[in-house]
Design a protein that fits this description.
single chain; 50 residues; mainly alpha; 0% strand
Amino acid sequence: MGQLIVFETLAALAYAFALRGRPPEAMTLAGIVLLVAGVVWALRIRPVRG
């Protein structure tokens, strides 16, 4: 479910930047990278079977 929320957020950001006609600022770009990195990191975690 988290991946879908991230995809929707990235799509909205891409649409907003395309509408403005300019790339994201450095802090916004850093936030996008951290958001994607967090999801990738969470997907790599395997559940521990007990």
